[in-house]
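From the thread on structure requests for the teaching lab: each student submitted one protein with a one-line request. Submission from student K.M.:

"Model peroxidase from Thlaspi arvense, C-alpha cells only."
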Amino acid sequence: MSTSRLHCYQCSQKRDVKCKTVPAGLLRMHFHDSFVRGCDASVLLDWKGKNKAEKDGPPNISLHAFYVIDNAKKALEEQCPGVVSCADILSLAARDAVALSGEPSWEVPKGRKDGRISKAVETRQLPAPTFNFSQLQQSFGQRGLSTHDLVVLSGIKHTHVHLKYISQ
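Reply posted by the TA:
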C-alpha cells in the first residue's frame, strides 16, 4: 500500500476510533474472521439463498463496526480500484484502531486475498464463551496458536489480568 493510500485509510480510521467500542469491535471481528477460514474477510460477506453467512452465525450476531470496513473500502476503491482486499482492510483496521486507542500495535502482512465462501455453520469452530482455559488452549492449539496468542486475542484491555492469572 502506498504512503498516500495508507494515509487516506488512517485518516478515515481516526474519526471512527472516537467511539470507544470500535477498537474492540474490530479486533473481535478480525479474530472471528481469522479463526474460521483464516484472514480472508469472509465474515464480511452477506448470505445468499438458503446459506447463511458467517456474520449470521450465533457467535457473530453481536459483531459491530462493519461500517468502518465499508467506509475504508469505499475510500480505497475510489483511489485505487481493485488493489486492496477487504481482508487486508480488516486486518489493518483492527490493528490501527487498537493502536490509535493507545494499545499495542503489531505488524500486519499485506497481500491477503478475499474469501468467497462464508457459512454460518462454520462459526461453531469459534471458542465458546463458556470454555475453560484448557479448552481454549486446545482450541487455539488446533490452529497453531500459542498460549500467548490466546491471551492477547482474548482482549487487549484484559491482557494484564490474564497474564497475571497465568503466571500464578
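TA comment: The first helix runs from residue 3 to 16. The chain is about 50% helix and 0% strand.
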